[in-house]
Design a protein that fits this description.
Strand content: under 5%
Radius of gyration: 21 Å
Membrane topology: Multi-pass membrane protein
CATH architecture: Up-down Bundle
Subcellular location: Cell membrane
GO molecular function, one term: transmembrane transporter activity
CATH class: Mainly Alpha
Keywords: Cell membrane, Membrane, Transmembrane, Transmembrane helix, Transport
Shape: globular
Protein name: MFS family permease
Structural class: mainly alpha
Amino acid sequence: MRRLGLWASCLAQLSVVLDVSVVNIALPSIQAELGLGRVTASWVAMAYSVGFAGVLLVGARLADVVGTARLLAWGSGVFAVAGTIGGLATEGWVLVTARAAQGLAAAVVSPATFTLLTVTHAEGPVRTRAIAIWTAVSLAGGGVGNLVSGVLTDLVSWRLTLLINLPLGGAVVAAAVVLYRRNVDDRRGGRISLTGAGLATGAFTGAAYALSSAGEPAAGVLPVLAGGGAVVLLALLVMQQRRSRYPLVPTALLRDRTIAVGNVATALTAACFQVGLWFFLTYRMQTQLGYTPMQAGMAFVPLIVVMLGVNLWVTPRLMRRHSPRSLVVAGVVIAVPALFWFAAVDHGPFAVSFLVPSVAIGIGGGLLNTPLATLVTTGVRAGHTGAASGLMNTSKQFGGAIGLAAASTATAAAGTDTAAFVLMALSLVAVAAVVAGIPRRDSTSAPVPAERSG
């Protein structure tokens, strides 16, 4: 069951991550075929990210309540059907609605994939290897999405970028059903407070919209209002969670210094690797270097291959002899100079302007992301695995959103994407500083204590 659990987790996570970036290159073709205005076209991408981030924390907690395998089956089914509807859409509003539905389903699927790994793999080298594979899929998914989108859009149609979700989702549903029938599940019972779920959904949806639409002139004052409302709802959520018998994030997790600090480092890492890196490199290749969609997608192959190779074969071996903190710092030391390289060199031969720095970033990213994921999930009791996974994924999503918003604003102010790469480099420098504050703890340490559900 370990192999099937790993396969299902990685395939489902690949689908979720692909759909973050798969429409980026296809968006001009979508806009032209469906006759979309600029605002509607931007919502084809934004609806997914807003739906995803808005209910992620609630979706993650569901895994602990109803069971991971069952939740993965339902979530993947909805994700695949929504993607199919989007791929067949002939009206802009249908496509935007389908993308929002995909985002909501992704908020359930993504944390469930990681939770499934912790259920089917015991702590130690076996789990480290599984996390390395899952992390490699998560990291490379952005580049794979650009590659797949470029090839399918150029050779066939943008519609296939969404229709491929049907066979992928069908395979995940079949695997999840097998896992459920063989009692590979972790249902712990309990409940989810409707008040807490409503406040969390409102707060994170408002925050996601404010960050995603920041800097868009057509949005007017809506991002400001959404951001202000999100702050108010978040304050109410904090007060409600302190008194709730069924908190979305158990206070034991928040009190654990390794988990709390590790999630800060995860958010800072995501400011570079979650969205920003793929977005700004894609934009540079097509607008400054004159690459076609297919050429832009193919240019990511070295970065993807190196990142996968380091994650799958190098990092797990190094983790047997070195602490996660030292590997995170090593990854930062390798990746940061390459980001400054991108900031300084924006033209020239492919090898100079893209290949060399992208390979270095692939090595650095491959070294630091798996140790971080291990740090924030080691020692967590089974009843809290969904919440821990949700906390990590929420840190990733909002770290990526904040990073993209800040980099986009800086780029607009400076008139060049140099500012974006400088900000991404500085975020990784901050990761090294934050990780220094994480206490030493290995997989044999005592787990985070469980709380009483009553």
